[in-house]
Inverse folding.
């Protein structure tokens, strides 16, 4: 499955998703993750995507997609209508971070979030040397980045405590390899599974 | 006319006669009727590749191609349907039908009333979207189509596609619902009523029996079309197309045609009143007003759509203010509540409601991709 190899967080997410469940993928891109989950886990799901090209790609991928700006909320989705609501590599690009996390917890039984860890040592080093960080998992220059709300692993965990989210599981990755020691320093991507308290 | 490889070419309308009485939603009964239709492409051996195309207010069964004797008479959705087009007639068997009550050859107000021998006129019963779909289902029986691969329509045509999924879920695998609304708003009904009033108050309407007087309520029909046309275009589109342009370059301080928009609307109105029947216009606007599948479910559209098992593609256009994207999202929400397979796209197009008829690359690519999926499901091999 080529789609799943594209992003290192897909395998981690797929490992958490139980077979036959209902999944909502926010900012689903070309639908690779949903397609992967449908093929490997037999899930039923929908993606939400704003970009025309991605919406087209989803239809080509045979994935259900709803064209919508995530910033406008998830009002078309009923409360607790999904087992998992996934926000993969999109949290840091959201303007209304608190709203979207609240909406994830309303619509889904569990939320799954992945994001690039700003606290990764390469990022810290670049800032220390006086430059905005650019890396494999943070590939944008400061002037053309979609990212507006970058955070570290510690930041996100504090955010969860403050916003009624209980973290159920966490995987920190560096180039696909799990990181167990000093995750906020050595991990480039963090993936969380959480629920409403 | 030079041969266009992406056109279905010269087509021939056909007529089917039905003599099993049809009981309408109003309770009225039509004992026998004819439906005009056209087909393009070939029905496969499994009879599984048929796609029904439903028309909106002013269109007909002539969906694609042209007539050999009248090559300029090109089908109303020719940019969408043909060999290699989004709805590809190399793969699908496409059926276009003129609805009951229409004025392009199907039984309607112009047809003779068997009880009097004279045209029905205003006595033709009021028809609903449900009735149209019931009649279309009989046409499907006639053509030997047990289950359609898809129904597709824009605006009022989309309402028929939606109704198909509710009334005959086992006979419709997919619905392509474009520029739709699950029911008209008060504003929509208001515009329709102004159009109707224009016709009803035309002195040449004669209570709907103008045929007997050898006249046509052209003035009413013209105004009806003008008001309708305003709602099909976006403010921006009108501004960019016409702005405040004047035909002679300056004010004439009179009531003649001065602004280009006036000229355009009058031309559209004149053209329309030449070929469209006033009674049919009244009937179709009523069908629009009455369509409300949620009505019988206490206003709950999700419950109304419970029977539908089809997969859906719902498409809206950002500048459509007649049936805005919000209206399509009502349908999307109801389908999501029912956990249906569904994709929804909001096409950023400047043309307003009319966009569904226009050749827009993003829109057409999306519909093409969706039909690829329909073809995939039917086990057709991928396009080269």
């Amino acid at each position: 499955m080529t789609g799943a190899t594209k992003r290192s967080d897909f395998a981690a997410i797929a490992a958490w998703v139980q077979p036959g469940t209902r999944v909502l993928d926010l900012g689903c891109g070309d639908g690779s993750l949903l397609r992967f989950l449908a093929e490997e886990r037999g899930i039923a799901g929908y993606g939400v995507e704003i970009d025309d090209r991605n919406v087209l790609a989803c239809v080509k991928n045979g994935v259900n997609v709803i064209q919508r700006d995530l910033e406008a909320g998830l009002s078309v989705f009923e409360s607790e209508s999904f087992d998992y609501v996934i926000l993969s590599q999109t949290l840091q690009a959201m303007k209304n971070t608190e709203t979207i996390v609240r909406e994830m917890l309303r619509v889904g039984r569990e939320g799954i979030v992945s994001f690039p860890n700003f606290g990764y040592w390469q990022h810290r080093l670049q800032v220390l040397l006086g430059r905005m960080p650019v890396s494999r998992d943070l590939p944008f220059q400061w002037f053309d980045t979609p990212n507006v709300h970058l955070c570290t692993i510690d930041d996100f965990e504090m955010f969860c405590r403050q916003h009624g989210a209980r973290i159920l599981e966490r995987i920190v990755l560096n180039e696909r390899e799990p990181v167990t020691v000093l995750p906020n320093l050595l991990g480039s991507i963090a993936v969380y599974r959480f629920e409403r308290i | 006319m030079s041969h266009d490889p992406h056109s279905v070419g010269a087509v021939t309308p056909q007529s089917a006669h039905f003599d099993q009485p049809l009981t309408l939603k109003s309770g009225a009964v039509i004992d026998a009727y004819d439906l005009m239709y056209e087909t393009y492409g070939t029905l496969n051996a499994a009879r599984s590749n048929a796609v029904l195309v439903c028309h909106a207010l002013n269109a007909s069964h002539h969906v694609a191609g042209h007539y050999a004797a009248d090559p300029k008479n090109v089908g109303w959705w020719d940019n969408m349907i043909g060999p290699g087009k989004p709805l590809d007639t190399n793969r699908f068997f496409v059926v276009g039908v003129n609805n009951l009550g229409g004025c392009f050859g199907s039984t309607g107000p112009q047809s003779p009333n068997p009880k009097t021998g004279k045209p029905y006129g205003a006595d033709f019963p009021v028809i609903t979207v449900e009735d149209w779909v019931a009649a279309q289902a009989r046409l499907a029986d006639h053509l030997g189509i047990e289950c359609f691969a898809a129904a597709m329509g824009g605006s009022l045509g989309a309402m028929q596609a939606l109704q198909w999924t509710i009334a005959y879920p086992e006979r419709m695998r997919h619905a392509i619902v474009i520029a739709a609304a699950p029911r008209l708003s008060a504003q929509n009904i208001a515009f329709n009523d102004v159009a109707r009033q224009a016709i009803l108050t035309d002195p040449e309407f004669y209570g709907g029996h103008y045929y007997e007087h050898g006249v046509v309520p052209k003035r009413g029909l013209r105004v009806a079309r003008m008001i309708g046309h305003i709602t099909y275009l976006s403010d921006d589109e009108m501004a960019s197309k016409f702005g405040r342009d004047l035909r002679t370059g300056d004010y004439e301080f009179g009531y003649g045609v001065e602004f280009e928009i006036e000229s355009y609307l009058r031309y559209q109105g004149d053209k329309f009143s030449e070929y469209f029947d006033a009674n049919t216009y009244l009937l179709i606007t009523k069908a629009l007003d009455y369509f409300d599948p949620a009505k019988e479910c206490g206003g709950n559209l999700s419950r109304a759509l419970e029977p539908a098992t089809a997969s859906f593609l719902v498409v809206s256009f950002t500048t459509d203010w007649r049936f805005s994207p919000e209206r399509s999202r009502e349908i999307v929400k109801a389908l999501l509540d029912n956990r249906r397979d569904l994709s929804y796209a909001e096409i950023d197009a400047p043309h307003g409601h009319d966009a569904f008829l226009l050749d827009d690359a993003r829109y057409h690519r999306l519909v093409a991709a969706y039909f690829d999926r329909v073809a995939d499901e039917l086990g057709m091999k991928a396009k080269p």
Notes: Strands of chain A lie at 22-26, 44-49, 65-67, 82-88, 108-116, 165-174, 177-178, 189-196. Chain A touches chain B through 21 residues (CB under 8 Å). Residues 7 and 94 of chain A are 19 Å apart (CA to CA). Chain A has one domain: 2-196.
